[in-house]
Amino acid sequence: MTTDADNKDFQRALSALQAGDAKDAEHLLKAVLRAQPKHVVALNLLGVALGRLGRNAEAIDSFDRALNLAPGSVESWFGRGMTLIAAGRRQDAIASFDRAIAAKPDFAQVHLLRAKLLADLGRHDDALAGVDRLLAMAPNLAEVWLGRSNVLFELRRYDEALAACERALALKPNLAEAWHGRGNALNELKRYEEALAAYDKALALNPGFAWAWHGRGNVLNELKRYDEALAAYDKAMAAMPDLAESWLGRGNVFNETKRYDEAFAAFDRALALRPDLAEAWVGRGNSYFALRRHNDALAAYDRALALNARLAEAWIGRGNVLTDFRQYDDALAAYDRALALRPNLAEAWFSRGNVLFERRQYSEAFADYDKAVQLKPGQNYAPGARLSAKLSICDWTGLATDVARLLAMLREGALSSVPFKILAIDASAADQLQCARRYVQDQPAFAPIWRGEVYSHDRLRIAYLSSDFHAHATAYLAAGLFERHDRARFEVTAISFGPDDKSAMRQRLMGAFDRFFDVQDIDDEEVAQLVRRLEIDIAVDLKGFTQCSRPGICARRAAPIQVNYLGYPGSMGASYIDYVMADATVIPADQRAFFTEQVVWLPGSYQINDERRQISEKVPTRRDCGLPDTGFVFCCFNNVYKITPAVFDIWMRLLGATENSVLWLFGSNPAASENLRREAAKRGVSPQRLIFAGRADLADHLARHRYADLFLDTLPCNAHTTASDALWAGVPVLTCLGATFAGRVAASLLKAVGLDELITHSLQDYEALARRFARDETYLLAIKDLLARNRTICPLFNTERAARHIEAAYTTMWQRHQSGEGPQAFAVDRIG
Predict the structure, then answer these.
(1) Does residue 716 have a cis peptide bond before it, meaning omega lies within 30 degrees of 0?
(2) Facing residues of 495 across strands?
(3) What does the mean pLDDT of the chain come to?
(4) Within this chain, domains 1-104 and 460-601 share the same CATH topology
(5) Is 219 exposed, middle or buried (0-12, 13-18, 19+ CB in 10 A)?
(6) Any idea what the Cα angle at residue 281 is, between residues 123 and 208, rounded to 5°?
(7) Which SS3 state, helix, strand or coil, does residue 543 take?
(8) What is the rounded distance in angstroms from the CA atom of residue 305 to the CA atom of residue 314?
(9) Quick one: how far is CA 262 from the chain centroid?
(10) Would you say 771 and 654 are in contact if contact means Cβ atoms under 8 Å apart?
(11) CA angle 624, 626, 631 (to 5 degrees)
């Protein structure tokens, strides 16, 4: 029997729930149920109260008791489903909602909640089917169209999501949530100004709509309006203090603006509010990766994937770390996982292209870069990477247009290329400097580790930083320098962040230094701290911005003096690099303006050479090399990406004018060889007259040079190590003086070996002189004889004298520093 007291307790319980006092409601409802154990509504309300108190298991039990009494109770199944969601049991919640829908097929709220759960579980097609069933029953309900839009958004069918939002707004123009959904879809469609207008409309209808403020922040972040984005996220969190996603947004802004300490703090706040927010772990991983803290980054990405294995950005991050670890198969697998989830994700195609490029699979790399650029023309560094891969397979279709477009982007301030990639195209010295500066601006900035301390050592401490302390061109050039440093005056340290290939060169180098540190598995911060602890006086970066470089070490100002030398033929555009070592040919006085470093002009050539480079006594035959038994051999063993159509035109005319001649090139990759042969045929030259040399050990490679009559240089990027190899092996090098450091190296080498007459100043003169060599055997032999004599007496291959010049440069740098003077350009006097 129901008493007046029971009714009063029930009403008071209902009022308590409405007022938010779940504890009081629980007490009153239990009193009602003691009197009326079969009071289904009271059992449902008790379930609600217990759920609000976080006692989910007790709440579910209360709903189950109600369902035992009334199995068809829509309210019980609905309440049970809501509690299961709170308990993290989404699959069970769907089953409860299915029972509620069976009891009340037009229960719109349950249909929409069910669809959201299915979408959260990745069952988007099921979610969409459920919403469409509801639409068949209620086609004029705006909220259902909005629900459909939300599911389509999760399916990344953004055009359809936008259309569904517009149907919702046609039915209910003042539905703020639909304007918010419209903004989300427009944001993904990169229609950013329209997206902002949609969010503004939502906010005009509901100024406290936190998610609309959050969406606005996301768009402003995409537009790089970072201060406004932060302000929008702050508005979102003011309206909803526990909105973890806006802390995530703030963290992403801080990542974009290189404020990593603040980014970590923001991601931590997001995770404190929502420990299951996988995207925040991705953000942390991105921060760690930018700081080259690879192990921490990998752990963060793995945490993200443990929470949400369908998060493509986490797979990309994981792939990026594995790429830097040179675990290329695993990196490709990670990118493929990302693309299986989001086939149109430009970042994944770009990163995948990077791995393929590292593996010299240039055709496949080009295809991936091309896809990235098509999907996102503004993808950072992708246009330069695409062009570099295209040049690496000698695909010249539309080349002039590609180059012009890339340079236009660069000149507008876009991050269109990493600096190294533009050295092989017709970029001016000003373009190269602009590219380097823009690249440096995009890197993290660090407080200096060396803070003005004055060192006083018995010997000047020099550290060489490189990834090339193994069988590599840089090592072949510089090994003699490291060995010949005057140990009475210099202590020489290697900071090696490249692989140990177990080669004879690696062993030689390990014995050439006073100290050799293998730091390939240590992050930039730790390496910089090592340089500081060693009290290195001068840190010499032998990589610059070339492949596998780590400028982040010097970016931390690890040593009082930091120098760009040998590896990178251009300015690094960085305030943390004090000097560049060059010569008067590669950097004439009128080009100083294009270098942020102070120039040190070495006598002769800037390029150090090792006079101990061995030429194999085992000489192959011409047939072993794929060459005909007779005939003039033009050669160029440069990397094929340096070959341009203009130079190739000349080469083909030379073949046409020289009977029985061949062109001997480096066989970089099958696609390049095929394309070059095709280009030869287009110019009326038999493709068989192009001969491609395979890879060989340096000594064997030098030995086969004996069959080359003339080395033809490339422009705008010259032969560098390959030119000195040819000269060392006795092959004349014909060059054309270029406009930039990279295009003037061969001229520098020729001057230093006393062969100035092989330096031309126009492509017309270059072609004419090449024809003379091919037609005038007496002239060719005279030049070869001169080279043979000069090889032993001229400065180019005098390692001892070059080492003394370099030491004199270091000493002058250090003396200026010790006297309190800043870096200043100077020329080193010739010794001997």
Answers:
(1) yes
(2) 465, 517
(3) 94
(4) no
(5) buried
(6) 75
(7) coil
(8) 6
(9) 22
(10) yes
(11) 110
Residues 452-469 as b/e (b if ≥16 CB within 10 A, e otherwise) read eeeeeeeebbbbbbbbbb
CA quadruple 280, 281, 286, 287: dihedral, nearest 10: 80
DSSP letters for 336-399: HHHHHH-TT-HHHHHHHHHHHHHTT-HHHHHHHHHHHHHH-TT-TTHHHHHHHHHHHTT--TTH
Task: Give the helix, strand, coil percentages of the chain, each rounded to 5.
Answer: 60, 5, 35
Residue among 355, 289, 360, 279 at smallest CA distance from 318: 289
- pLDDT at 249 (0 to 100): 98
With tokens 């896809």, the residue in question is: 371
Q: Could you tell me the sign of the dihedral formed by the alpha carbons of 268, 273, 275, 279, in that order?
A: negative
Pairing relationship of beta strands 515-518 and 490-496 according to DSSP bridges: parallel
What is the model's pLDDT at position 6? 59
Contact 100, 107 (CB under 8 A): yes
Cα–Cα distance between 523 and 542 in angstroms, integer? Answer: 18
Among all chains, which residue has been given the structure tokens 């149920």?
A: 33
Supply 384's token pair: 């330069």
Q: Would you state the structure tokens that stand for residue 4, as one six-digit string? A: 């007046």
Q: How far is CA 19 from CA 49, 60, 63, 86, 664, in A?
A: 12, 22, 22, 21, 88
Answer whether residue 2 shows pLDDT above 50: no
Q: Cα torsion at 186, 192, 198, 200 (round to 10°)? A: 150
Choice among 127-136, 401-410, 812-821 with the minimum mean pLDDT: 127-136
DSSP-derived pairing of the beta strands 579-582 and 598-601: parallel
Report d(CA 803, CA 786) in Å as an integer. 25
> What is 460-601's CATH number?
3.40.50.11380
Q: What is the rounded distance in angstroms from the CA atom of residue 734 to the CA atom of residue 108?
A: 80
Does the pTM exceed 0.90? no
Within 8 A by CB and 6+ apart from 227, the residues are none
Give the phi and the psi of residue 759 in degrees, each rounded to 5.
-100, 115
Both tokens of 334, joined, read 């990670």
520, 527 in Cβ contact below 8 A? no
Q: Which residues contact 336 (CB under 8 A, 6 or more apart)?
A: 352
Select from 550, 576, 558 the least CA-distant residue to 497. Answer: 550
CATH number of this structure's domain 633-797: 3.40.50.2000
pLDDT for residue 601 is more than 50: yes
Amino acid (1-letter code) at residue 468: D
Reply yes or no on whether the pLDDT at 736 is more than 80. yes
Under 8 Å between Cβ of 774 and 654: yes
What distance in Å separates the CA atoms of residue 258 and residue 440, rounded to the nearest whole number? 12
Token output for 763: 């492509």
Query: Band of the pLDDT at 160, cuts 50, 70, 90?
Result: very high
> Cα separation of 406 and 411, whole Å?
9
Residue 390: which of 181, 671, 586 has the closest Cα? 671
**DSSP code, position 323:** H
Instruction: Please report, for the chain, the start and end positions of each structural domain, with discontinuous segments joined by +.
Output: 1-104, 460-601, 633-797
Q: What is the pLDDT of residue 119?
A: 67
Distances (CA, A) of 50 to 29, 30, 42, 43, 77: 11, 11, 12, 10, 16
**Average pLDDT, stretch 167-175?**
95
| Alpha-helix residue ranges (DSSP H) falling in 124-157 | 124-137, 142-154
The CATH label, of 3.10.180.10, 3.30.559.30, 3.30.420.10, 1.25.40.10, for the domain at 1-104 is: 1.25.40.10
In degrees, to the nearest 5, what angle opens at C-alpha 544 toward C-alphas 346 and 558?
110
C-alpha 512/C-alpha 481 separation (Å) is: 9
Name the amino acid, one letter, at 501. D
